[in-house]
Amino acid sequence: MDPFMQAAIDEARQGLEEGGIPIGSVLVHRGRIIGRGHNRRVQKGSATLHGEMDALENAGRLPASVYRDAVLYTTLSPCPMCSGAILLYGIPRVVVGENRTFMGEEELLRARGVQVEVLQDERCIELMRTFIERYPAVWNEDIGE
Question: What are the catalytic residues?
């Protein structure tokens, strides 16, 4: 198992334990995690704290050269907002845990030169399946339905 996807899954599980949506992400630069986060919209009453955004925020202010040499791991396919951040910062590679639950802007990312790898990790799929069954209204709020 990829230790970086495992770290993203650990973040997702932490978010679930906090009462939030189980989506986690880590930003990796040269084999080291420099930012980690999870969806904290529920916990913080936030409109924007998706897992990817939280990981970027927790990485702090970085030079453009770091982003251009980083990999973002996320347990769920990135939404339009998170994909925009990936493009804005020039992150060249994204590893996605799964896209069966939600298909984000993978084609946009690929069209703009980002390498997107989808693992279809059963742990990621199960986290989301269980959460959506238990909390459909919260999920629908998060994805804008």
Answer: 52
